[in-house]
Fold this sequence. Notes:
The protein has 398 residues and is an alpha/beta fold. The chain has helices spanning 21-31, 52-63, 91-109, 124-130, 156-166, 175-181, 197-205, 212-215, 234-243, 260-263, 279-284, 306-312, 323-331, 342-355, 358-369, 373-390, and strands at 6-10, 35-39, 75-78, 116-119, 137-142, 169-172, 188-190, 221-225, 248-252, 268-272, 288-291, 317-319, 336-338.
Amino acid sequence: MLHDQTIVCFSSIDWDAAWQIHQEVMSRLARAGNRVLFVENTGVRRPALNDLPRLARRLRHWRSPPAPHDLPPNLRLLSPMIPPFPYSRLALPIKHALLGRSLRRHLRDLGMERPSVWVFLPTPVVVRLATEVDPSLIIYYCADDFASSSPQAMPIEASEAELLQRADLVFATSSQLAERARHRNPRVYLMPAGVAFEDFERIRLSDTPLLPELQALPRPIVGYIGGVNERIDTELVVEAARRLPSFSFAFVGPIRGGMSALKRCANVHLLGPRPHDRIPNYIKGFDVAVIPYRLTAFTHNIYPVKLNEYLAMGVPVVSTPLHEVRAFADEHAGVVAIAASADEFVAALQTAVQADDAAARSRRVEVARGNSWTSRIARMSEIVEARLAEKPRAGAGV
């Protein structure tokens, strides 16, 4: 495990966003004795009206940063206040000057020299700063296909290509992202999202009663954890809810957009965001868990974090035919049901509820055990340490 390293993480999400790879990896590295500066999202597109709550939280963080005791040990937060327009040639010098000044001040105050720079957000300003802080390594953790996330994010392709060429290491969360990255960098490692298996196992084996808000729902409960946003195939969910009126559909996570079609369904319950450490308790109350994503250019490249979290609780999983989930299902036969239509989705939900047994639950748990974050971080640490050992010292930076 990496220890006593200095790390700067340029994240593509904010610290208090729905818990993802960014927070998990950096939290674990910080707890292992590394000094981590977590730079919150500086933007991949122009802000929209539904970004106002996030911008308000950013302003609060900027005015009053979270106290150290509110963060993992050895981790500090940098909440940049810089102009939007991430690809504007006019805005870039201003963004570079503001973020660069703040970054250097934090590095100096924290005594952080020659950091390894972990980049989740390959925008022009981030790529430029990543090369200017005298990095011991530049690591690109390629977790999303940003260019396909929205038309406004398409210009990121140029700076991402530059980062891929400069990076000492690339970790990719899906085989599709890894394959694309290898066209520009030979040191690419497939590193999908893992699961905090020990935390999930503790809840799974405990006799803790089910959460009251789940107890109140008619069973069986079809559950979902994660952002309730444009990725969700709402037409599919609405049709499944209509055909299965005795089932309860519980969605746990931040709601983005109106989601009026889901709200109109009497047996669909949008519970909203919940603390990350409570997520295992919610999954424990599901009879079957779902990944009902639309098939798009963006979702074609994702490996859902929730997949192994569901399995770690032994819960049956039904997913639309996402490329990475389909490959996972092929590798682990019988662990995940793939449904390509409403008919298949409804049938898979019914089968999951009726045919579940102790042997099937045990099989799911063992698959998740093999995908724990403990093993993922250990493997990444080996790769990083080997690259640090072979790389000659670079010249002075900023």
